[in-house]
């Protein structure tokens, strides 16, 4: 990697850490960057997952005040996230690389749809919160498990999916749900990262750069992310996501 490429990965890590803490979808920034500098899709995905773990942890710590009183919820749903993350990581390592290259453009496209639809989803969720169970239930656990599988396998917009599911199932303030989302995403990324460290090919320099950048971005997102124009963030995410799709299909 050249000095310019290192700087690009570092900046992408900061941006991704910030976006992941505020909403999710940071992978749609970092994954295309790793592809652009020459890494194969599976290696880029594995390295991206490892590199963003510190950002997930940093964001969760930044939202620790909103986590107060959610211990039982975190334990219950965290189990689903850990199990799902293990299954997703095993699928990534078990399926052929050609399967990943075929599936990921579709996953990115679906993630972009979720990113664009998020404002409408949020309004719909706000209307339903008074009619749902206070702690989710089996359907939410199943949904979080499925999101964990997705997150362990690829993970773009994992946070958006978790926020949508939690908003449907739990009558809670959005900032507290966002704090919960950060913990669940950190668990998925963390358990997948452990598996990848032992059984996958990892590009360690990008991992280090992403780790430093995403950790800083996690704190940035927790402190000032709520003030960032959501429309601008969504626009950037859509652009880089489309660039990733083009990169994978060419």
């Amino acid at each position: 990697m050249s000095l310019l490429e290192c700087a690009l990965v570092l900046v992408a890590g900061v941006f991704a850490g910030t976006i992941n803490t505020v909403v999710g979808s940071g992978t749609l920034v970092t994954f295309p960057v790793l592809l652009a500098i020459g890494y194969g899709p599976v290696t880029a995905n594995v390295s991206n997952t490892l590199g963003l773990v510190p950002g997930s942890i940093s964001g969760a710590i930044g939202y620790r005040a909103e986590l107060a009183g959610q211990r039982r919820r975190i334990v219950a749903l965290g189990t689903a996230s850990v199990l799902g993350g293990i299954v997703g990581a095993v699928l990534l390592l078990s399926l052929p690389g050609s399967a990943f290259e075929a599936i990921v453009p579709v996953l990115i496209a679906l993630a972009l749809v979720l990113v664009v639809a998020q404002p409408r989803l949020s309004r719909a969720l706000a209307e339903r919160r008074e009619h749902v169970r206070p702690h989710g239930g089996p359907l939410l656990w199943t949904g979080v498990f499925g999101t964990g599988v997705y997150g362990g396998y690829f993970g773009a917009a994992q946070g958006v999916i978790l926020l949508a599911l939690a908003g449907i199932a739990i009558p809670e303030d959005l900032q507290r749900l966002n704090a919960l989302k950060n913990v669940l995403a950190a668990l998925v990324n963390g358990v997948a990262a452990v598996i990848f460290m032992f059984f996958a090919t990892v590009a360690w320099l990008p991992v280090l750069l992403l780790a430093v950048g995403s950790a800083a971005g996690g704190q940035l997102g927790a402190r000032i992310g709520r003030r960032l124009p959501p429309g601008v963030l969504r626009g950037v995410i859509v652009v880089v996501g489309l660039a990733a799709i083009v990169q994978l299909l060419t």
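The two ends are 22 Å apart (CA to CA). Residues 97-128 form the longest helix (32 residues).
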